[in-house]
Amino acid sequence: SILQYQNIIVSRPTPAVALVTLNRPKVLNALSAALIDELVSALSLLDTDDTTRAIVITGNERAFAAGADIKEMKDKTYVDVFKHKFLENWTLISHVRKPVIAAVSGYALGGGCEIAMACDIVLASPTAVFGLPEIDIGVIPGAGGTQRLVRAIGKSRAMELILSGRRFSATDAAAWGVVSRVSEDVFADAIELATTIAGKGTIAVQAAKEAINVAFETSLDEGLRHERTIFYGLFATQDQKEGMSAFAEKRPPVWSHS
Ligand code: HXC
Description:
Elements: E1 8-14, E2 17-22, H1 33-48, E3 54-58, E4 63-65, H2 70-73, H3 78-83, E5 100-104, E6 107-109, H4 111-118, E7 121-124, E8 129-131, H5 145-153, H6 155-164, E9 168-169, H7 170-176, E10 181-182, H8 186-198, H9 202-214, H10 220-233, H11 238-248
Parallel strand pairs: 2-3, 3-5, 4-6, 5-7, 6-8, 7-10
Antiparallel strand pairs: 1-2, 8-9
Helix pairs in contact: 5-6, 9-10
Bound molecules: hexanoyl-coenzyme A.
């Protein structure tokens, strides 16, 4: 472990990849406030750490995370959640600049599904079970579920799933685009993908992520303008000179990530 926490484990499976493992296995990785604080803090440290160029978030075979910690949440009042901005820090997960891959095995329910959807790429094992069952405990998804699921799979399907609380399989998630693919060895494949991405020039990777994310927030015309501005900016980097020279000289590029 490269950073010390109580509810997560941070390790480095390959030199430029950080692996964050949600680690409350007895409660299927129920997302307590303490766990989320640690997750947000670890992601923020890894985001500014120069050796880390890609991040994988995972759980264990049985559960990615079975949602927010219901026992911790159940006695909260409106005043509690309002005053303390309950769930607001969850949004920091999607503010990470570096690529974040979720490797989902087992349950990804409620807040667990929402964390996965806040990641840039989701890989699912054949056993993965997704769902937003908040309706069954008298609330609604509160960490991006109603917004990100609609964007991922469209209104009718999102309505059906959120209003019924029905779970969906890895196969459905892949067919609908919630996950990029189903993978037999999801943990190894996520690390392999992260390692591949970590081998690219890190500024270009982060620029591409930013440009793609703009597509969710703006019109096509604005998005195209934004893309071009980011593209132009890359001509100020060493990696653009290196990448294009290497191609012309028929040799592999050596990225300086600058
Ligand atoms: C607290 C949880 C939990 C959760 C599981 N556990 N999910 N504790 N919060 N979300 C605990 C159980 O209480 C139990 O503890 C232990 O984990 C094992 O779970 P079991 O239920 O015994 O396992 P199983 O019978 O296999 O059922 C698995 C399950 C079920 C189907 C995933 O645990 C379940 O329905 N969990 C809740 C799923 C859910 O509603 N998630 C959405 C939460 S709301 P003990 O001590 O009894 O052994 C949410 C919205 C928040 O996330 C808003 C945005 C963040």
